[in-house]
Amino acid sequence: MRGERSDDPPVGAPPHETPAANAYPPGAEAERAAEEQRRDDEDDGELMPEPDSGLVFTPRRIAIYTGIVFALVVGLYIALPAALSGLSEMKDVVRRADPIWIVVALGFNVLAFAAYVALFRGIIGGQAEAQQSYPRLDWSASYQITMAGLAATRLFAAAGAGGIALTYWALRRAGMVRREAAQRMVAFLALQYSVYLLALVICGIGLRVGIFNGSSPVGMTIVPAAIAGVALIALALVSLIPRDIERRLASWSRGYRRRAVWLRRLATGPALVASGVRTAMTVLRHPSSGLLALLGAIGFWAANIAVLWACFHAFGEAVPKAVLVQGFFVGMTANLLPFFPGGVGSVDAGMIAAFLAFGEPASAVIVSVLCYRVIAFWLPIPPGIVAYLQLRRTVSRWRGEGVHAP
Length: 406
Fold this sequence. Notes:
This protein has helices at about 30-45, 60-85, 90-95, 100-125, 130-135, 140-155, 160-175, 180-210, 220-240, 245-250, 255-285, 290-315, 320-330, 345-355, 360-380, 380-400. The chain is mainly alpha-helical. The longest helix is centred in the middle third of the chain and has 32 residues, at about 180-210. The chain starts with about 30 loop residues before the first helix and ends in a 6-residue tail after the last helix.
């Protein structure tokens, strides 16, 4: 039909030659390369939109989420303990609280955020090339970005989306190009959550076969370990996607613009994840930044679990180490639920349910998990907001120095 483009090759055209192949006159290779780069940038913009300085902490969002979070906090941290206050066992647990262990938990929480900054520094700016290309991403900027990102993660969206958006915005404002900023964000998340998944596999299998001490219900051990194992395998397979997959698909679809556009869009996400995973592997091979990033990823999770461990001890409960790790990570999966801002309520309930499934006493589990969430989740929000305000001033200074997002 007239006016419609067919995906069939033109009659009489050579098998390896299409109209798109002749879009540039002979010798115009530079023009062709510039056009392909422009399309790459457009694809990157679809995957990661150009960041906006008001992307996360807008007044309207703050008002809405503050109201929702306040209601959840009142119900979870005030109404629930009040409803349980009639239980003599709960009163005894709270009465036995040891303030020294609470101080220990606070110390571990500081270590957790120091490790998080180290992970960011190792992935984003630890290598010599990155330090030369982006000298403004120093330790001070790394602290501001990570603390502000953690506050955004806790206040907005699920599975850390708020923190990811804010961190991407900061990297772009530091002068990092779109694709590299997205790749390094993927590398950061890939390394951080590979530790998460690997711990689920090791502790889940170890508990079930009796290597580690503690109860071993199938739903809390083998099932999470199997899911985590599949996720790790999928991550490894994605890294095998060819670096030039987008160009290969574009070449295969040359001459059929509609098909080429859809294939490029479908390939952009997997290609970006693959390049991000390979970036993480490259960083790990670096003697200094690789060690810093690995210690940061392990230290972040280990220190968070140590906060929970100290909270259990504060209320007189000694949970087996492998059960503590497995219950922590299984409970944290509730953060993926999109219905609760920053996982408020969902993670608390998920952790409590996980430890109850392992047979731990309900009274000690409830007060210990709620204490952990106050220390690890709520207390860092005020310094995170302060870091965000500092980051805004830092970005303004970068702009004054002529740094822009290319």
